[in-house]
């Protein structure tokens, strides 16, 4: 019985749940703790390690011009003027047939600008040509008569020696010959006069063509086809010119300087000119001459100034401001342009003067050569370039490669205001 009961117990189904597999919860918890520690480390470095970098103020190196530039001793205003400018007109009165120019057009010396109606001039030339031809024919006719008279005289000379003709007849032949000689001279002179008259008529035809007297640019067109032009016109509907030409190579500046300051201006003095139309363009110039006459009403003296730059932007009658400059020192051209930084940007490391340039929150130590002192700024001739960001009041422990924090503008960052 007991054996049967034991067998029945062995056949009973065990309804207990199977044992669970090993859990991975511990692994994930470990990874989470490690990540948290890493994040805390990074945050701690960012919070404490980064903040350990010194906070500095910075400024930007500013480019300056050549250190040999001159200072202005006097400023004045004036205008651009042309030394060669002409309103071109015809030499004769006539009706315009064609105008070949427009404003802004460049013309060369001798280029045709306009033509006048040549009917009258052509008629005069045709008449002069006919008169010259008639005069030449007259010369040939008298020359033929003279040849006959000279031959007749020679024959009579032989006959009179043989006493075959009378002496009176021979004298009459000589007189006729001499008369024809005088007539030939007169005819030749008349032919010369006719030739001169023909050349004058040719000039009259040429005067119907208006040419440019010199190379330049047309600034005004004054006549149209069909209008009457005359160099002697005083009013009405008659024009006095065809157009105006300006030689742009002859442009210069005229300014009026007060009598009290004219002593500061000298011939060949350097000048810096600024056109009112181009305020940022500094044009080099030079004093040509001081006109030896004063304006009693304005108490001024006129000064002529030559422009050293030829540019199509410079046109006559433009307003201009000029600055008369002191002569630059002889050694000035040898000096190189540098940059301007606050004096606080220059630090000492040993026997060298250095500056710290900030790039990507790190500093780079550069040895610099320092020039002039300009107020609170210093000129650096070597070691820095325009646009470099330099540290102001660098800490004594700051070294090449150190990390720094740049102060915000509201926290005292500064820069130069020069140039």
TrEMBL record:
The record's section on Pfam families has: Beta-barrel_RND_2 (PF25954), BSH_RND (PF25917), YknX_C (PF25989)
Q: Where is the YknX-like C-terminal permuted SH3-like domain?
A: 340-406
Tell me the Gene3D superfamilies matching this sequence: 2.40.30.170, 2.40.420.20, 2.40.50.100, Helix hairpin bin (1.10.287.470)
**Span of domain CusB-like beta-barrel:** 253-325
Question: What keywords is this UniProt entry annotated with?
Answer: Coiled coil, Membrane, Transmembrane, Transmembrane helix
Q: Which residues cross the membrane?
A: 27-48
Top-level lineage group: Bacteria
Q: Name all Multidrug resistance protein MdtA-like barrel-sandwich hybrid domain ranges.
A: 84-230
Coiled-coil annotated spans: 132-190
Q: Can you tell me which family this protein belongs to?
A: Belongs to the membrane fusion protein (MFP) (TC 8.A.1) family.
Protein name in UniProt: Efflux RND transporter periplasmic adaptor subunit
Provide the species name.
Lysobacter niastensis
